[in-house]
Design brief:
- The protein is of the alpha/beta class.
- Helix content is 35%, strand content 20%.
- It has 15 helices and 17 strands.
- Helix 12 links the parallel strand 14 and strand 15.
- The protein is elongated and about 85 Å long.
- Bound molecules: ligand BES, manganese (II) ion (MN) and zinc ion.
Length: 496
């Protein structure tokens, strides 16, 4: 059971909500529109501040029962510190997230946020994105039996009142698309694998047709015909059929080569016969975080009608232990023709991506490919959960992604690659083996992928940031939806 958020952007007009939220700068300053409302209360802000602990620092609040002439019952003073035109997008989003969570904590059912801080329409749109992302929860399976009184209001109706409704509405169209793509990715990752299997995920990709995308889903028969022996081997142990979903957004010039996003979609990774330890295995319902991010960015591009041709390709499989499962020592043949000796069935993501990358390169001749995957524990050891690992054969693409990461807060950190690492995956019996040695596990995994991209500019993002990250004002959920904002920024900065 969760609360719905209904967010409207409006001009300054007569208040229609019970609660009004005024943003207070750290000099205890209210801008014109907010002052107009506050003055009607007859209260002295600095006296109030002296008598309380409210100093208008960011993330501080003071709730006032509104007396007299104000058309609302309550005024929430929200400290925003020094937020203003010089602040960056992330600060605006953070402020939005902080405020919406305070409204949640107050069990508010409606509020008008008077946003007359000096800021561009884009900055205000990032604040709105913060409201949406910060409000997100994944509570659909909590029924709260017997605690009906404790339930939050079913809906939170928010009005974001701004000076230039038209400009903010236009900027919000883009940021709302990014938020909805991120929320789509979060939902997919949070959903348990008994509910979201390969078939259900393929359907979620199909659902993007409603956003104007063209979606094709390949089944095992078609993938067998294409020779995808690596991807298919991962699914041998599962009762669920493997699929590949191909999502196309054609918003660019007709005939222009597309850009391509490729995702690892292991709906559950038990490790297969090289089974994982029990502790933490539950996190592997999120081993489709790469595919979720690809689905999310494709939704975003469609929603905001991006002027680019883009294709999203996701390999959907389940890695289980079973009589039909692939074995350590099996030698499989990938779509590229290269053979792979499987030495650990838990290094399955690279097998999925080997065929997905090769298929994408051969079918679409893309300008570049970015793949996203929860590929290795080793990347988490290296970078923790604050940067995703970036591995690439192309300096421009790497720079574009690094810059986009700094702008959006979805940061990536480039890791080294090279022939000395590549040779660690040479195999005694086949062209390569699916694991390297004890060291540099994130790099040897990337070297493996590199053998399937030819000379297409390519980047691999190892998502140690997709789930289980400490909560922030704009993400209170286990899954983050990491990658959607990052890729959207890359597209907007370089490809539209
Ligand atoms: N999906 C896992 C990697 C992973 C683990 C991501 C935990 C996020 C959280 C991947 O399929 C895997 O099992 N990798 C192995 C590779 C090893 C067998 C070479 C790993 O990292 O231990
Ligand atoms: Mn695995
Ligand atoms: Zn995995």
């Amino acid at each position: 059971m969760d609360q719905k958020l209904n967010l409207k952007i409006d001009g300054f007009s007569k208040l229609k909500t019970k609660r009004v939220c005024l943003l207070v700068g750290d000099k205890l300053s209210l801008s014109a529109e907010a002052s107009g409302i506050w003055d009607k209360t007859g209260l002295d802000l600095s006296a109030l501040s002296k008598a309380s602990t409210f100093e208008a620092k960011s993330a501080s609040f003071f709730n006032v029962f509104a007396p007299n002439g104000v058309d609302a019952d309550q005024i929430l003073l929200a400290g925003i510190g020094d937020l203003g035109a010089d602040s960056d997008a992330k600060d605006f989003a953070k402020a939005g997230g902080t405020i919406v969570n305070q409204l949640r904590a107050l069990k508010a059912s409606d509020a008008t946020i008077i946003f007359d801080v000096e800021a561009s329409a884009e900055q205000i749109a990032h604040f709105a994105a913060g409201l949406r992302l910060g409000h997100y929860r994944f509570d659909k399976y909590k029924t709260n039996p017997g605690k009906k009184d404790d339930l939050p209001p079913k809906e939170l109706k928010l009005t974001l009142a701004v000076a230039d409704k038209k400009a903010v509405t236009a900027a919000d169209k883009i940021q709302n698309a990014v938020s909805q793509g991120t929320i789509t990715a979060r939902n997919l990752v949070n959903e348990p694998a008994n509910v979201l299997g390969t078939v259900e995920f393929a359907q979620a990709a199909k659902d993007l047709e409603a956003d104007g995308l063209e979606v094709e889903v390949l089944d095992e028969k078609q993938m067998t015909k294409l020779g995808m022996g690596a991807l298919l081997a991962v699914g041998y142990g599962s009762r669920r059929p493997s699929h590949m979903a191909i999502m196309k957004w054609n918003g660019g010039k007709k005939g222009d080569a597309p850009i391509a996003f490729v995702g690892k979609g292991v709906v559950f990774d038990s490790g297969g016969l090289s089974i994982k330890p029990a502790g933490g295995m539950e996190d592997m319902k999120g081993d489709m975080g790469g595919a979720a991010a690809v689905t999310g960015i494709m939704k975003t591009l469609g929603m905001r009608k991006a002027k680019v041709n883009a294709v999203g390709v996701i390999g959907l499989v389940e890695n289980m232990a079973d009589g039909n499962a692939m074995r350590p020592s099996d030698i499989i043949t990938s779509m590229s023709g290269q053979t792979i000796e499987v030495l650990n069935t838990d290094a399955e993501g690279r097998l999925v991506l080997a065929d997905a990358l090769w298929y994408t390169k051969e079918t679409f001749k893309p300008k570049f490919m970015v793949n996203l995957a929860t590929l290795t524990g080793a990347n988490i050891v290296a970078l923790g959960d604050q940067h995703a690992g970036l591995f690439s054969n192309d300096d421009d693409l790497s720079k574009g992604l690094t810059d986009a990461g700094l702008k959006t807060g979805e940061r990536v950190w480039r890791m080294p690659m090279g022939p000395e690492y590549d040779k660690l995956i040479n195999s005694k019996f086949a062209d390569m083996k699916n694991i390297g040695g004890r060291w540099a596990g994130a790099i040897t995994a990337a070297q493996f992928l590199k053998r399937f991209v030819g000379d297409v500019p390519w980047a691999h993002i190892d998502l140690s940031t997709a789930m289980g990250v400490p909560a922030t004002p704009i993400c209170k959920s286990w899954s983050t939806g990491f990658g959607v904002a990052l890729l959207d920024q890359l597209v907007r900065d370089h490809h539209e």
